[in-house]
Structures are given as structure tokens and as C-alpha cells.
Request: fold
Amino acid sequence: MTTNIHTTFDKIFDRRKKEEFLNQRSKVIWFTGLSGSGKTTLASGLERLLFEKGHFCQVLDGDNIRSGINNNLTFTEDDRRENIRRIAEVCKLYLNSGVITLCAFISPTNEIRNMARDIIGEEDFLEIHVNTPIEVCEKRDVKGLYAKARQGKIPNFTGISSPFEAPVHPFFRIDTSKQEAEKAVEMLFERVEAEIELE
Reply:
């Protein structure tokens, strides 16, 4: 009689079997950019289009992560890093389940995104830089977060009192101030389609 309560990995269906069942290659599509740049809008739009094409997806963003699994974290540098680490680990679980995961997080530094990439795996991490100018992001800010940050009421606010480092070689870069959301989503789909088609 065994006392080991942990499931052994050789008893779990492997990723390939789950991808074949879902008829897709699982990937993590990671949207990075300033607050208000359009990350969640693009991720949600791409999820809808992928679903219409028969793909199974999950969107992760600040709303469903920081209200649940990461609700004990603040916005200090250490907590931001832990926030992304946990998200990346969740993505890895989705990845091994055959699911396409769309992540919309500021993830402001190359170091923090590289950490996520290392956890998920280089070949499965598709980095999308939503390169919308800060002045456009501020105009879209219905919650007034940028104004509060400029008044010093919100510390460590990316783009104001905390830096944002643009990805050097993202999988795709897009400026949502130059593209309508629907067109931007179509452009994204054209770029990721080959990555998720099962061979």
C-alpha cells in the first residue's frame, strides 16, 4: 500500500494527446503594454475570434487574477514579480492541458517577462507588445488612474513613477491608436494562426 498522495505524471495524459483532442497547439500569447494600451481588449477580441474558428482559449488579466489567486499581492516591485511568476505557472498548467492562454498584463520590464518566458518555455511564449503612446492611454483612462499617479496618489504606477521597458524582439508589435480594434484582432489572428495549427 502506497502512502504517496501525489499523482504521478506518467499517469496523466500528456500534452500532445490533449492538443490532438482539441485540434490545436497550445500556446501562451502574452500581451504587454501600458495601462490603457488595449491589452485586454485585444486579448478578449482574439479569444472570440479563435473560439469562432474552433479553438479553446482562456483569457487571464488583472481582473480575474488579482481578484482571486493573487488578491494578497500589492504593487511593490517584489509583489509584481510574484504576481507574474504565479501567472506564468498557471499558464504552464493551461499549456500542458492543450489550452491557448491569452495573458493581458503590464509586466513592465524585460527581466520580469523573461522570467515568465523561462517558466513557460521560449517556444510557447508569444510576446505581443501593445505599443500605444502614453498620451493616448491617459485619454482612455476612465478611472482616472494616470491623473492620480501624476498627483502622487498612486505609487509605483507604470509609465509615471515606475518604468516600462519595451520588448526588444516581440513576436508582434501593435499600436492600437493606429488600428481599429476589429482590424487589430484580425492582424493578430493572422500572425498566431500558424503557431496554433496542429501539425
Notes: The beta strands are 28-32, 57-61, 100-104, 125-130, 172-174. The mean pLDDT is 92. The CA atoms of residues 26 and 99 lie 5 Å apart.
